[in-house]
Specification:
This protein is α/β, with parallel strands linked by helices and 320 residues long. It has helices at residues 19-27, 42-51, 58-78, 96-102, 114-127, 169-182, 199-205, 212-228, 287-296; strands at 6-9, 83-87, 106-111, 132-137, 155-159, 188-194, 237-244, 249-256, 260-264, 267-271, 276-283, 300-306, 312-318. It has an 8-stranded mixed β-sheet with strand order 1-4-3-2-5-6-13-12, sandwiched between helices. Strands 7-8-11 form a 3-stranded antiparallel β-sheet. Strands 9-10 form a two-stranded antiparallel sheet. Helix 5 (114-127) links the parallel strand 3 (106-111) and strand 4 (132-137). The model has no long low-confidence stretch (mean pLDDT 92).
């Protein structure tokens, strides 16, 4: 098998990938907000990988431990010769814990960051010469389409990192329903879900002492300057992340430290001192709460694994 990556450009013409339009629309709202998908330019993707190495950020190491322990059981649920679709492939480190056990016939990495996607899939192709590797540059939060020629008789979508938490519960339900329609009949979803826990543990994970998460959040403003020519001073904003218990979610914001105006083309957006730009939600679930949500999207829970401290969970959802 050649180590070349088959690249599928699903970016062109995708309305959800118009950074400029979404920035203008989001900053025009009474309560300014942007989608967290725009964190992930090349620098943002590298910063997120650094976040995953911070001692406060339990999510990555805990999920990796769960996947390593459950790999053989996961492989038996998925079955041989499947198509493995990784959503938000990033550095594709976690999927390596599954590849040898699962031995899929094909791998499809899907990510919004083109350069990071190509880098990670090329490494996979080189390290697993028996694996047919495909890369789809796409915004899977808007639409997922398995490229022609990649389809398998059975597929499993791998969605790690509790990225499902970036959707509000109703949005997460709709996303899972769309995913079920996009995959072949009888396919499954292997998904990481962060669990509700002590506020101090949650808030520390999004406010690491090294300030990496703050840099990641502020990079959104840097990206506006680099790509849109926006007139904005990132130093006039600070990172804020807190747990909203009523909504069961971490919220991330950029807080204006002074009265200022952010300019994109002819559009001017005034910020009062203390006003925020809402950049991310990360919803937290109980096991039962997430299983109920998945059930409403048309799935049944086939298995769920967690760590001894009940910090994190991994669910295998079946659509048959």
């Amino acid at each position: 098998m050649s180590s070349a990556v088959r690249f599928h450009d699903q970016h062109a013409g995708a309305a959800g990938l118009s950074f400029r339009d979404d920035v203008i629309a989001g900053l025009s709202l009474e309560r300014k907000r942007l989608s967290p998908k725009y964190f992930y330019d090349r620098r943002g993707s590298l910063l997120f990988e650094a976040i995953c190495r911070q001692p406060e950020y339990y999510l990555t190491r805990t999920e990796e431990g769960i996947l390593a322990a459950a790999a053989e059981e996961i492989a038996s649920l998925v079955g041989p010769e499947s198509l493995l679709v990784e959503l938000g492939s990033g550095a594709s480190r976690k999927v390596r814990l599954l590849l040898e056990a699962m031995r899929p016939s094909r791998y499809l990495g899907v990510d919004i960051s083109r350069d990071f996607l190509l880098q990670s899939t090329r490494r996979l192709a080189a390290d697993y010469p028996w694996l047919e590797v495909h890369a789809a540059w796409a915004d899977f939060s808007e639409r997922l389409r398995v490229p022609a020629g990649v389809e398998g008789r059975r597929a499993v979508a791998f969605f790690p990192g509790s990225s499902i938490g970036n959707f509000a519960p109703a949005e997460a339900e709709a996303f899972l329903a769309r995913l079920r329609q996009a995959l072949p009949p009888g396919s499954g979803v292997l998904i990481g879900v962060d669990l509700v826990k002590d506020r101090r543990v949650l808030e520390a994970a999004y406010n690491d002492a090294a300030g990496v998460t703050a840099a990641f959040n502020l990079n959104l403003l840097e990206r506006m300057r680099r790509e849109l020519g926006a007139s904005v001073e990132p130093g006039n904003f600070r990172h804020r992340a807190f747990f909203d218990a009523a909504a069961s979610r971490i919220e991330m914001h950029l807080v204006s430290q002074c009265p200022q105006t952010l300019v994109v083309d002819e559009h001017r957006f005034a910020f009062a001192r203390g006003e925020t730009l809402h950049t991310e939600n990360s919803c937290k679930y109980s096991r039962e709460g997430f299983q109920a949500l998945a059930g409403r999207a048309g799935y049944r829970s086939s298995a769920v694994w967690s760590d001894a401290e009940e910090l994190f969970s991994v669910h295998y959802l079946s659509s048959d």
